[in-house]
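Hey L., structure's done. Input below.
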Amino acid sequence: MSRTRGLPQHELTAQLLRITDELSDRFHGVFSRETVAKVVDETYDLLAENATITTYLPVLTARFTKQRLTDQGRADGLTTVTVPQVLFICVHNAGRSQIAAALLEHHAFGKVSVRSAGSRPTGTIPQTVTDALAELGIELTEAYPKPLTDEVVRAADVVVTMGCGDTCPVYPGKRYLDWDVADPAGASLDTVRAIRDDIDRHIRGLLSELLQD
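Output:
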């Protein structure tokens, strides 16, 4: 993939090397530097495919690579697992799955690990979604659409789909749920509030089940 957009090539290369160095230190004893470097490069290209603004791609690459390596370590049994992990999937990872992930993180207080992804991630999170969550004191300051990758599914204990069809890979031993929730894309703030509250009811029920287990 061409990397001519955004930062000059030499600056981008330097930033990706720095990310590799930092994550190699963080995951020392779990993954080799070669593995980390491969995931960094792959992650940058995954995010760049649908990015409309490339300025912040290195920052997002660092965040997403860290998450992917964490999930890979969890899925492969290389790291200690202490809490259940839930993955929310919708088409663009800009609406329903972001709302669900934010609400579960808000209610779980660290007792559940939360992920979200899109089968075809694109665009940005609508302001109505951000505003509706802000009304509950939830800030989406670091949220961004992310692609669905194999390791995030393998690492999940519960996979919740919301309108993404059959694009999610199925692994045995996992719990799969499909929530019939309206899409907030292009909706008014009042409608997004109703969708938020609908998702919140689902979230509270799921959280109750998870903490009982």
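The longest strand covers residues 85-90. The chain has seven helices and four strands.

-- N.
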